[in-house]
Amino acid sequence: MTTQEMNKNTPGESMKSKTRRNTKQLALWTGLWLVSLALVAFGPKFLWDFHTVVTVCTVITNLVMGYKMIMANKQHLQDLDELQQRIQLEAMALSLGISMVFGAIFGLIEGIRLVTFSPNPSAILFVMGITYFVGVLFSTRKYA
Amino acid sequence: MKNRFKVLRAERDWTQADLADALDVSRQTIIAIEKGKYDPSLSLAFKAAKLFSMTVEDIFQAEE
């Protein structure tokens, strides 16, 4: 039996082409979201001198891009196969858990006078990203 | 759980990529199943059984 004949058992789009398309979509919307976030962060000061209407429009655009990115990520996860979904789930569990534990204590360290600086909440995004990446690496190795 | 994925694939002279395409999963999943590091879902097990024209019990055996 050839691969083509075997593929007849699975009607519809193949997993490879779905993954390719979903990855492109995810990259596109993540890129657009990042650009719109940069515009929200730097535009008011450097491009339009804090004009409220323009700033509000940029914020709305950023939220729309964020929504599209979330949906693209959801679709990407949905179309992965069962092992890949498990790898993502394990990585997300690690990322969420560590972010919650460290995020909670990070928010308290100034109040309990362990540090003198004010903790920046956006630092938690880096923790999430790094732990997610490490989680994917660990889980991928586990099943390799 | 033990399985005969590797033997059955070799008997048919299929590559891991061929089997992955036929079952609509990634090659990574085939590797993990063959090495016994991942037990597939019931639906994937039935799909494999159909592809190999065997029963699920002929492919997968519970370890004592």
TrEMBL record, chain A:
User: Which sequence ranges are marked TM in the entry?
Assistant: 26-44, 50-70, 91-109, 121-140
Write out the entry's keywords from A to Z: Membrane, Transmembrane, Transmembrane helix
| Superkingdom assignment | Bacteria
Q: What is this protein called?
A: Uncharacterized protein
Question: Which species is this record about?
Answer: Brumicola blandensis
The lineage is: Bacteria, Pseudomonadati, Pseudomonadota, Gammaproteobacteria, Alteromonadales
TrEMBL record, chain B:
| GO molecular function annotations of the record | DNA binding
What PROSITE patterns is this protein classified in? Answer: HTH_CROC1
UniProt domain HTH cro/C1-type: residue ranges: 5-59
Superkingdom is Bacteria
Sorted keywords for this record are: DNA-binding
Question: By its UniProt entry, which CDD domains does this protein fall under?
Answer: HTH_XRE
Q: What is this protein called?
A: Helix-turn-helix transcriptional regulator
Which source organism does the UniProt entry give?
Answer: Brumicola blandensis
